Amino acid sequence: MESIFETTFCEGFYRSDLGVGKELLVFANRARSGLRYVYTTNICTLTGLSEKRRDTIQELGQAKEPTKD
Questions:
Q1: How far apart are CA 64 and CA 25, in angstroms?
Q2: Rounded Cα–Cα distance for residues 43 and 18 (Å)
Q3: Which DSSP helix (H) or strand (E) runs through 4?
Q4: Phi, psi of 27 (to 5 degrees)
Q5: How many CA atoms lie within 13 A of 61 on its CB side?
Q6: pLDDT, tens digit, 9 for 90 and up, residues 22-59
């Protein structure tokens, strides 16, 4: 995923959130771009520093393996 810094259109990440050792919770969107998929995120969602999103992480719960239904 590209490290786009925030813009007036909510795209990307806050510059202060990006850095080595920082943990982020990222909600991404997948879209087709030509023959490949690209992932984007924006600051108008719950994307942000994990330490500020503890309630969201707790609500999401423990990760589970995907099923093949």
A1: 17
A2: 12
A3: none
A4: -105, 115
A5: 2
A6: 999 999 888 888 999 988 888 888 888 999 999 999 99
